[in-house]
Design a protein that fits this description.
By secondary structure, the chain is of the alpha+beta class. Among the domains are: about 110 residues, Killer Toxin P4, Chain A, CATH 3.30.430; about 90 residues, Phosphorylase Kinase, domain 1 (2-Layer Sandwich); about 180 residues, Transferase(Phosphotransferase), domain 1 (Orthogonal Bundle), CATH 1.10.510.10. The chain is about 35% helix and about 20% strand. The chain is built from 18 helices and 27 strands. Strands 7-8-10-9-6-27 form a 6-stranded antiparallel β-sheet, covered by helices on one side. Helix 5 runs antiparallel to helix 6, helix 11 runs antiparallel to helix 16 and helix 13 packs antiparallel against helix 15. The longest helix is centred in the middle third of the chain and has 34 residues. The protein is globular.
Length: about 650
């Protein structure tokens, strides 16, 4: 009997040891990120510690089959709130294993903290001494990217944007707040994506959270990565990195009991009458709605209650007219495709050529952005701004009609090795001056003070004479006459062009456009994108490289080699100097557009020495407190670069001068 007992004990010990080795490898790695550096401390042996231990035990043991649980434990002032959530595609067994690891890690990595969070690949665990349920918090974000570049960056970026926007909408409306999917990229390669929010968020808050972190997906960089915060996260790869979700169970078929013989005829008659009446009412309702809708937009485009711009008269195009003009949106007439949808060339019956921007139905740009663009552009008249001819709202279509510009956009020339030779120095200098005058009109000379918020090379269109015209006002904001700055929680724009105060804190002003203009000037001078590989193959950002050359007195090494030194040296040096003034970290130190136009037109203006720009480094570099330095994390993710974005409002941190790469 004793022998059997001993044997049973050894068997149990062996089983326990075996189970340890079966824990998923992912759960044994260090957390992807931890957030505990800025919270207050609790004392050992305190009631808060007791409540925290009870909370952690409850969270890991009571997590539901769908991988989510939140609870509070104790009473004020030692009340503790907690939440756990696992990735939507893993089993409950793997979920609990990950959470057990998390509950240990959060105590070891955030000792005595009253507010902390840890995130692993498969799960998130968070607790706090304040109620954070249902709140969106993106104060801390981590960006993980792999090192493989996309073979066709433009196509990859567009397809990835379409996929993430679709998954954002799907996850926001799903009870699980989780969505996966894929989209074609380069046959047979596809892009696979995953989006998830914590399940305590509302549909709108979930979509808003995902939209805010999508802005940090690096453009034209890698074919895989993750952006993670405590409220939501996303990931994408060119292989299926998530588990396939099981299909929903089919509905149970039930056979209705046949009615008594005497009632068959009566029941059939009643059903026919009800269906007929229902169909008739539905048709009448649909016709009335369509008529009212067409009447409402026939002559006016109502965009608000503001007396100055409340009722805007502009041309309303019929869908049939635009279909005929574009050959029913024929692929042969497609000029390109942006983040909000394709653009088609068309010709009206009077021979006028037009460009039709057709917003895709799954586009992130909705009626609000379309209204915004209509009201802004229709009120503006300047030779360096694209001219809006009208719009179309019909059969769920949303389209804007612009003047047609035969040379498309600046980026098609600037970043193409063959077409770039067509941009000699005189044309580049004229383009810089035209953009500057267009922005000056927006900021100071028009009766509306406007901040564009998305100035970039692809939004500069070129006419037949290569004159630049600023386009795409979907993100533009109108300012009051005395307004100098505004804030937003929905950061929208393009990576590499966004001013640091806007990207990090949501603060924007005319000086935000000045920053984007400075980046654009440096791109025009060098023929290189602000983010990406330069011609030597070195991974660097253009503003850092320009500052390095300016500081060393080697500015001319920045100039596009295709110019073959056929330029005016004084003009080039002045433009580099001006560009660096525009990309200074301090928004107040950047020049106004009126000063910039004066710098371009007059050599009597003395330019001040610029201060260093913020160096947006991709990888583990020398930016203190902005980048994770955990050696375990670096070892576990040796093929990825990790960026931790922390707004200065949290700890008062300011970005100091760093050594250029």
């Amino acid at each position: 009997m004793k022998f059997l007992e001993s044997k049973s004990i050894y068997f149990l010990l062996f089983t326990c040891l075996l189970s340890l080795f079966q824990i998923p490898i992912k759960a044994q790695q260090p957390p992807i990120f931890q957030d505990c550096s800025n919270s207050a401390n609790y004392t050992n042996g305190s009631q808060f510690e007791t409540n925290l231990n009870l909370l952690l035990s409850s969270l890991t043991s009571n997590v539901s089959l769908d991988g989510f649980y939140n609870i509070s434990t104790g009473e004020d002032p030692d009340l503790v709130y907690g939440l756990v959530q696992c990735r939507g595609d893993i089993s409950i067994t793997d979920c609990r294993t990950c959470l057990n690891t998390s509950s240990t890690a959060i105590i070891n990595r955030c000792p005595n903290k009253r507010d902390a969070a840890v995130r692993f690949d498969y799960c998130l665990l968070r607790y706090s001494d304040r109620r954070f349920f249902s709140e969106v918090e993106n104060n801390l974000m981590v960006l993980l990217t792999n090192t493989q570049n996309a073979s066709d960056p433009d196509l990859f970026n567009f397809q990835l944007g379409s996929l993430l926007n679709q998954l954002s909408s799907t996850a926001g409306s799903a009870p699980s707040k989780f969505a996966t999917g894929n989209i074609s990229y380069a046959n047979p390669t596809r892009i696979y994506g995953l989006v998830q929010c914590t399940r305590d968020l509302s549909d709108g808050n979930c979509s808003s959270c995902v939209e805010s972190i999508i802005q940090f997906v690096p453009k034209f960089l890698s074919v895989g990565g993750q952006v993670l915060s405590v409220s939501c996260n996303l990931g994408y790869e060119t292989h299926e990195f998530f588990q396939a979700l099981p299909p929903p169970p089919p509905p149970v078929a039930t056979s209705p009991q046949p009615p008594p013989d005497g009632k068959k005829k009566t029941s059939r008659t009643v059903i026919i009458i009800v269906i007929s009446v229902g169909i008739t009412l539905a048709l009448i309702t649909t016709i009335c709605i369509c008529l009212l809708r067409r009447k409402a937009i026939k002559t006016k485009f109502d965009i608000g209650d503001d007396d100055e711009i409340g009722n805007l008269e502009t041309t309303l195009f019929d869908l049939s007219t635009l279909r005929a003009a574009t050959g029913n949106f024929c692929v042969a007439n497609k000029l390109g495709e942006g983040g909000f949808g394709p653009v088609y060339k068309g010709k009206l019956t009077d021979g006028q050529e037009i460009a039709v921007k057709r917003l895709s139905r799954c586009s992130a740009q909705g009626i609000a952005e379309l209204r915004n663009e209509v009201v802004v552009v229709a009120k503006l008249h300047h030779r360096n701004l694209v001219r809006l001819l009208g719009f179309c709202l019909e059969e769920e279509e949303k389209m804007l009609v612009y003047e047609y510009l035969p040379n498309t956009s600046l980026d098609k020339f600037l970043f193409d090795a063959k077409k770039r030779v067509q941009l000699d120095w005189e044309r580049r200098y004229k383009i810089i001056g035209g953009i500057a005058r267009g922005l000056l009109y927006l900021h100071e000379d028009s009766r509306l003070k406007i901040v564009h918020r998305d100035l970039k090379a692809s939004n500069i269109l070129l006419d037949a004479n290569m004159n630049p015209k600023i386009s795409d006002f979907g993100l533009a904001r109108l300012f009051g006459s005395d307004q100098t700055q505004a804030n937003t929680l929905r950061i929208a724009g393009t990576y590499g062009y966004m001013a640091p105060e806007y990207a990090m804190h949501g603060q924007f002003s005319t000086k935000s456009d000045v920053y984007s203009f400075g980046v654009l000037v440096l791109e025009i001078l060098s023929g290189q994108r602000n983010s990406g590989l330069n011609e030597s193959g070195r991974d660097t950002d253009l503003t850092s490289n320009a500052w390095k050359h300016w500081a060393e007195g080697t500015e001319l090494e920045l100039i596009d080699k295709t110019l073959d030194e056929k330029y005016h040296r004084s003009e080039v040096l002045r433009c580099i100097h001006m560009g660096l003034l525009c990309v200074q970290e301090d928004a107040g130190a950047r020049p106004s557009m009126s000063s910039i136009v004066l710098m371009l037109d007059s050599y009597s203006v003395t330019l001040q020495a610029p201060s260093p720009p913020i160096f947006f480094v991709r990888g583990m570099k020398t930016m203190p407190d902005l980048f994770t330095t955990d050696s375990d994390l670096q070892a576990s993710y040796s093929d990825r670069s990790t960026i931790k974005l922390i707004p200065s409002s949290i700890n008062g941190m300011s970005i100091t001068e760093f050594e250029p790469r």
